[in-house]
User: What shape does this take?
Amino acid sequence: MISLHGTVAVGEFARRFSLDVDNEIVGVFGANGTGKTSLLRTIAGLCPLSEGELNVNGAIVDAPAEHTFVQPELRRIGMVFQDHSLFPFMTAVDNAAFPLQMLGMKRIAARKLAIEMMEQFGVANVGQQMATTLSGGQSQRVAIVRALIGSPKAVLLDEPLSAIDEESREGVRNHIREHLVRLGVSAIVVSHDRTELDHLCTRIENYTR
Amino acid sequence: MNSVSSRTPRFVRLGALLGVAFLALPIIGLLRRVAWSTLWAQLTDVATRDALRISLYASVCATVLALVLGLPLAWCLARMQFAGRRFVRALVLLPMVLPPVVGGVALLGAYGKTNGLLGGVLDSVFGIQLTYSLWGVIIAETFVALPFLVLALEGGLRSIDTKYEESAAVMGATDFTRFIRVTLPLLKPSLVAGLMLAWARALGEFGATITFAGNIQGRTQTAPLAVYTMLESNPEGAYALSFLLVAVSVGVLVGLRDRWIGGGSQ
Assistant: This one.
């Protein structure tokens, strides 16, 4: 469960968020500049709240009034960044295995699991390629694997299908949904594509300026 | 037909040619004086071997010390906002513009056995004497090499997109893991360039070393000091050692070619 009620500074402006996600896939729809990405960054712990409270799975992780701020590395959140943010100096499989290694798993075992999951998302064949050589769609799929592989407590997806070609979208979307259901976690999907959200999410929040 | 902006006037070409000649002539002159037939014998002479050994050891130690001190310094200058940041940067750059002999005098003021700020304490409490010792050579070389490393690392750290560190944090990487697994690999090109520049500067150090550590063969006499000393007593040896130092410098430039030399052609 994610419960966010508070204000965060977005550039020169302050944006108030009020959102409750109870083990469902919530879509956040809105044009650029409406604070969609800031919402995800706040939940991930990359933008601290200036006022209010953020609760993830029953634990307060950000509450300025109580001087509580749990660092991002302790929140166990899986996130697909809008620009994927794959490490350019690693192969695709090492990128995908990274969260497992952060949980203490040995590299070989982590890579094995990563390859298995990459197979589901159709990118196992590019596992040994450096991240910089991947196409936009391949890079996005690896980023999705990386967000889901570490059994996170909540999943945040920023435009997760924007670089994936039309024909493959349904398959990738289904795999994302399957994994989220299996994990049984709250997920927030941000997009400016309403149709995409209709296909993937159980509920949609409309963000306007 | 060339546009006006890409056309180079003749006097500019002539000036550039003179510049190249000015830089190349001393190197040609040096190479001309090298006694190639006795080169190996000169380079394996006891005094030369001692100087090379001390130079190599001290310059490597100085580079490591510069890294230990320079990396945190570069990190703070690149990523922290703090009072006195401009002052700290100026302080870091100072050894680059300071005459090296003055650097040596300043080091005497800090670590000199009799009148130094810390030198007396180091000697009486710990029994460490930096002046006229190998450690003195290392300290003098670190003093002049540090700015080169800090500048390279600071530039590198500024150019790293923090999104990679952010994504690593979200994936559970602690500060230390992020630094080792993400920041360092991204910093590698600047780190390698900085280490090479710092090492080359340490290897070529003369003024601060001779002032602070002296010129004692087998103890503090580095290769540049040996060249200076041998120029009167054994010019052939001086030219042989100079040739070796030129070769090492060329090696450093080759190592940095992608960063500095290749830039214009791309």
